[in-house]
């Protein structure tokens, strides 16, 4: 009797692994193996979009421009400048009843090259960088780094760069001071230990063999770049080259239960929502999957979620359904429901003092929902309505999906945000809903395979509702 009462009344948050059988575990391991393989090919926003287009086309999705008019069941996508993408399936229900949107981001913290990056100092050549997103700078020194991105020449010719990933490629690194001479550095605050202007990438050391040349190592590097990519120094001004960890995604732990990889914020949610969308066939409400860019620097710019590009995509759907009329776009947004699929701060027992244990997202306990984010008294948060939280809970509970409702950390300890508020501002019901991560924004981030699969199950169930 007592036991039953406990079971009925208490919100017990079980370890997900204890709730599944061997065949489910196998399904989870298969899913996350595919995820790790995907991550190894899609380490930047541009690379993610290339892989997403391939996956979408293999599953019958076509560019919305290829359609004259749209009908229920049609599978569409729209590419925004190779860095963000929206996908959709037209539902059988009138679109005026609203969209079911899942939105993640495919950019991750990193170091970008400055427009004039190349210099030589005492026989060593370097690229200067400007960090992108919130990083702890000291974490980016003395690890193997690779260079990914594009260089565009004035004639429009585009060179794709990916160097440091293949076993036969060289890698690059940012050096740090030896402990023997670091007395002064070690007295500094952690955030000042490595300065932003010192995040310079070591890229070469052999001089060009010509007496008359002044900067021989720099010229040698430019000569190599010219032979390899057909570029000159000025072309680096119109490039987007990103310095990211050269690590591969790997299983972590003797039991293989975790994933360690770069860029899981937010490619873990981007991947699991993308794959969930690929499993859909007929949906009632029009299903939309957003893979946005620039979230890590505030979602600004024309590939960020603040841009009107998304409105344009939905307007195009309304045009091609041949139902568009004044204010319809607003109406569609106001009746829409959204999961903002971004990662959550996982509870880390080593740093337990920053979390409220009752309200933290734990690794292995399933998808983590944040009713609100923000900081200092929920400032800047899009706080989901209780009615909507209940609606989402109902989907999770009837599909037997493990979930936890959490906060980012203790009150007044810090905070953060996602793209949730942007869609909420358009009138949609939105809640943050993603995978808990350890070492978020570090070169190597950690997630639980159980949670990754529960994210996939959540996104699929939401769209199938
Ligand atoms: Mn994120
Ligand atoms: Mn982030």
| Low-pLDDT ranges | none
Query: What is the name of the CATH superfamily of the largest domain?
Result: Zn peptidases
Per CATH, which architecture of the largest domain?
3-Layer(aba) Sandwich
Share of helix, binned: 25-40%
β-strand percent reads: 15-25%
Structural class label? alpha/beta
CATH fold label of the largest domain = Aminopeptidase
Question: Can you walk me through this structure?
Answer:
- It is a single chain.
- This protein is α/β, with parallel strands linked by helices and 465 residues long.
- The chain has two domains: 2-108 and 262-464, Zn peptidases (Aminopeptidase), CATH 3.40.630.10; 110-245, Roll (Aminopeptidase i, Domain 2), CATH 2.30.250.
- Helices cover 28% and strands 24% of the residues.
- It is built from eleven helices and 22 strands.
- The protein has helices at residues 2-9, 22-41, 45-58, 183-187, 216-229, 264-278, 309-320, 328-334, 386-398, 420-425, 449-464, and strands spanning 62-63, 75-80, 84-89, 100-105, 110-121, 124-132, 145-152, 158-163, 200-204, 239-245, 250-252, 258-261, 287-292, 337-340, 344-345, 367-370, 374-375, 403-406, 415-416, 429-434, 436-437, 445-448.
- The strands form five sheets. A nine-stranded mixed beta sheet has the order 1-2-3-13-4-14-20-16-18, sandwiched between helices.
- A hairpin with a 3-residue loop joins strand 2 and strand 3.
- Helix 6 crosses helix 11.
- It is globular.
- The chain binds manganese (II) ion (2 copies).
- The site of one manganese (II) ion has 6 residues, from helix 6.
């Amino acid at each position: 009797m007592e036991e039953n009462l406990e079971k009925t009344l208490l919100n017990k948050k079980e370890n997900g692994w204890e709730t599944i059988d061997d065949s489910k575990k196998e399904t989870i391991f298969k899913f996350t193996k595919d995820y790790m393989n995907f991550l190894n090919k899609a380490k930047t926003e541009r690379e993610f979009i290339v892989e997403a287009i391939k996956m979408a086309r293999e599953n019958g999705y076509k560019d919305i421009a290829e359609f004259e008019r749209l009908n229920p069941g049609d599978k569409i996508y729209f590419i925004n400048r190779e860095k963000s993408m929206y996908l959709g399936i037209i539902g059988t229900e009138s679109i005026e009843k609203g969209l079911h949107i899942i939105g993640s981001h495919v950019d991750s913290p990193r170091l970008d090259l400055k427009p004039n990056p190349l210099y030589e100092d005492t026989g060593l050549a370097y690229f200067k960088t400007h960090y992108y997103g919130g990083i702890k700078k000291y974490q980016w020194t003395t690890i193997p780094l690779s260079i990914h991105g594009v260089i565009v020449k004035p004639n429009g010719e585009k060179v794709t760069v990916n160097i440091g990933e293949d076993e036969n490629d060289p890698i690059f690194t940012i050096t740090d001071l030896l402990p023997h001479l670091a007395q002064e550095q070690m007295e500094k605050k952690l955030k000042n230990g490595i300065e932003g202007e010192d995040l310079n990438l070591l890229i070469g050391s052999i001089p060009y063999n010509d007496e008359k040349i002044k900067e021989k190592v720099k010229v040698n590097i430019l000569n190599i770049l010219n032979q390899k990519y057909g570029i000159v120094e000025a072309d680096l001004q119109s490039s987007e080259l990103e310095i990211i960890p050269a690590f591969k995604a790997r299983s972590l732990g003797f039991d293989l239960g975790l994933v360690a990889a770069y860029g899981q914020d937010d490619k873990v949610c981007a991947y699991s929502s993308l794959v969930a969308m690929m499993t859909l066939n007929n949906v009632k409400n029009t299903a939309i999957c957003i893979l946005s860019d620039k979230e890590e620097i505030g979602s600004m710019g024309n590939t960020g979620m603040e841009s009107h590009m998304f409105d344009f995509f939905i307007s195009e759907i309304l045009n091609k359904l041949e139902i568009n009329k004044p204010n319809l776009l607003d109406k569609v947004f106001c009746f829409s429901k959204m999961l903002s699929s971004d990662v959550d701060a996982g509870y880390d027992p080593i740093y337990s003092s920053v979390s409220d244990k009752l309200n933290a997202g734990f690794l292995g306990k399933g998808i983590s929902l944040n009713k609100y984010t923000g900081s200092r008294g929920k400032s800047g948060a899009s706080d989901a309505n209780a009615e909507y939280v209940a609606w989402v809970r109902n989907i999770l509970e009837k599909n037997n999906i493990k979930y936890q409702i959490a906060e980012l950390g203790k009150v007044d300890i810090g905070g953060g945000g996602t793209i949730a508020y942007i869609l909420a501002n358009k009138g949609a019901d939105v809640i943050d809903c993603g995978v808990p991560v350890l070492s978020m924004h570090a070169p190597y981030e950690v997630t639980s395979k159980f949670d990754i699969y529960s994210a996939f199950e959540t996104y699929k169930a939401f769209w199938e509702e």
